[in-house]
């Protein structure tokens, strides 16, 4: 059987579809590196240096390629596309479950944002995580993962993967480097998986050190950076693969579900393989219209993240002075504050999430009820990255997949309120609304400050 090649996902300048007889592969290869790696370490600068997509008629915004399937000018061209000889790097497209020009453009933006060679955008964050792990692992192999993860990810590792593919997970305290090192077994462990800032406890991972330990054991380091786009750049710190739920900060509108996988071109291409690729065969395809919407939001991600972080730090400092038990990586008493400060990209702060430990679920629910329905401080809703402040009691919501024992190991208090701090209104207005709710909570006798 003839070898089947996989088309590359690396960017190539837009043009009308090239004749299949064109032989410019060497020129294309020479251009790829210069377009991908601008040498910028700041994610906003890297985004600005990335190639801009113009519309078909010269519009400043790219056109939406809404077609599900694509025509060819010569019958022989289709055979060459299916053999992998011609692909999207030369503007040859087959079918939008495979590659779509608009979705690829968003992928280039995500690659620039995270400083990776390539990226592929998916229908959701969970589909990105699932596809990466199922591509990297085979039946009977092992993942070493943080014991504090988003509930859906924890369920995937604890229940789904063992059932369908005999893939097991060893959970560790990600801040105990010796524990991580001991859990990684050369030849058996294939992936080290963790969140750059954990959901919901806001534990910060030492990405350079964890990457060093993982690579020493020959494993692929996969980092979920959903909580800290712009703030942290895991691939620039040593990670191999970065995954995102774009639904959160990157979208910013709480109106889109999407995900992204950022890594090497060889990884992304393997995931699009016609016979073995998880993206190709499981089909978590992003709609081109969604990709266009998201590409229009990425340019203002930097100022949004700066404001999220600025507001979160200010509120955390005031809450702490009030005597509340607040968890925020930007506070100097946070256990990983110095680690985060050493890794963070300058000017983007420490992230837009903070937690209040109200100790009991009853007090947490009472506070959230007052903050939404009495003082209008924010909304009781899961997810994060919205312009309004979103609040949830993690133990009974986004981490409900964990058992009580697993929550205890992860450090998730029954009364932990996770807040995604928004930027609507003024800081003083929001602080006044918060104080009003706290005062009412004290009057109810349910809660007293320390």
Automatic annotation (TrEMBL):
Protein name as catalogued: Methionine gamma-lyase
PANTHER family found in the cross-reference section: CYSTATHIONINE GAMMA-LYASE, TRANS-SULFURATION ENZYME FAMILY MEMBER
Gene Ontology cellular-component annotations: cytoplasm
Cofactor entry: pyridoxal 5'-phosphate
Region annotation (Disordered) ranges: 1-28
Family statement drawn from the similarity comment of this UniProt entry: Belongs to the trans-sulfuration enzymes family.
Gene Ontology biological process terms from the UniProt entry: transsulfuration
SUPFAM superfamilies: PLP-dependent transferases (SSF53383)
MF-aspect GO terms: carbon-sulfur lyase activity; pyridoxal phosphate binding
InterPro entries referenced in this protein's UniProt entry, alphabetically: Cys/Met-Metab_PyrdxlP-dep_enz, PyrdxlP-dep_Trfase, PyrdxlP-dep_Trfase_major, PyrdxlP-dep_Trfase_small
Keywords associated with the record: Lyase, Pyridoxal phosphate
Originating organism: Morus notabilis
Residue positions, PTM N6-(pyridoxal phosphate)lysine: 248
Coiled coil location: none
Gene3D superfamilies reported in the protein's UniProt record: Aspartate Aminotransferase, domain 1 (3.90.1150.10), Type I PLP-dependent aspartate aminotransferase-like (Major domain) (3.40.640.10)
């Amino acid at each position: 059987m003839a070898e089947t090649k996989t088309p590359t996902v690396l960017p190539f300048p837009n043009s009308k579809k090239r004749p299949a007889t064109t032989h410019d592969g060497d020129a294309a290869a020479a251009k790829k590196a210069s377009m991908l790696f601008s040498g910028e370490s700041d994610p906003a600068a890297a985004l600005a240096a990335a190639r801009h997509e113009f519309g078909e008629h010269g519009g400043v915004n790219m056109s939406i390629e809404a077609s599900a399937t694509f025509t060819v000018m010569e019958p022989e061209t289709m055979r060459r596309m299916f053999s992998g000889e011609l692909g999207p790097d030369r503007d040859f497209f087959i079918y939008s479950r495979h590659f779509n020009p608009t979705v690829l453009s968003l992928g280039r933006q995500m690659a620039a944002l995270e400083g990776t060679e390539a990226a592929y955008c998916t229908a959701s964050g969970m589909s990105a995580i699932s596809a990466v792990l199922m591509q990297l692992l085979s039946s009977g192999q092992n993942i070493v993962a943080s014991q504090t993860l988003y509930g859906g990810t924890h369920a995937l590792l604890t229940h789904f993967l063992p059932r369908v593919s005999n893939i097991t997970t060893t959970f560790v305290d990600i801040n105990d480097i010796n524990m991580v090192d001991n859990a990684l077994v050369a030849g058996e462990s294939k992936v080290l998986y963790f969140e750059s800032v954990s959901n919901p406890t806001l534990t910060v991972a030492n990405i350079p050190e964890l990457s060093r330990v993982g690579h020493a054991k020959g494993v692929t380091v996969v980092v979920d950076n959903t909580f800290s786009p712009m703030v942290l750049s895991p691939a620039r710190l040593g990670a191999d693969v970065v995954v995102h739920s774009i639904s959160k900060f990157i979208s910013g509108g709480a109106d889109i579900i999407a995900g992204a996988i950022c890594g090497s071109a060889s990884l992304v291409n393997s995931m699009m393989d016609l016979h073995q690729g998880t993206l190709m065969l499981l089909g978590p395809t992003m709609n081109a219209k969604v990709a266009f919407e998201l590409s229009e939001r990425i340019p203002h991600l930097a100022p949004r993240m700066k404001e999220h972080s600025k507001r979160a730090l200010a509120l955390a400092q005031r809450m702490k002075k009030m005597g509340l038990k607040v968890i925020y990586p930007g506070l100097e008493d946070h256990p990983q504050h110095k680690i985060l400060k050493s890794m963070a990209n300058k000017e983007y702060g420490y992230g837009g999430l903070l937690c209040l430990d109200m100790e009991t679920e009853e007090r947490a629910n009472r506070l959230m009820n007052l903050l939404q329905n009495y003082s209008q401080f924010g909304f009781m809703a899961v997810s994060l990255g919205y312009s309004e402040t979103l609040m949830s009691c993690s133990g009974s919501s986004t981490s409900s997949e964990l058992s009580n024992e697993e929550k205890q190991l992860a450090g998730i208090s029954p009364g932990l309120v996770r807040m995604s701090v928004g930027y609507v209104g003024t800081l003083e207005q929001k602080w006044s609304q918060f104080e009003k709710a706290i005062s009412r909570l004290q009057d109810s006798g349910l809660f007293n400050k320390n």
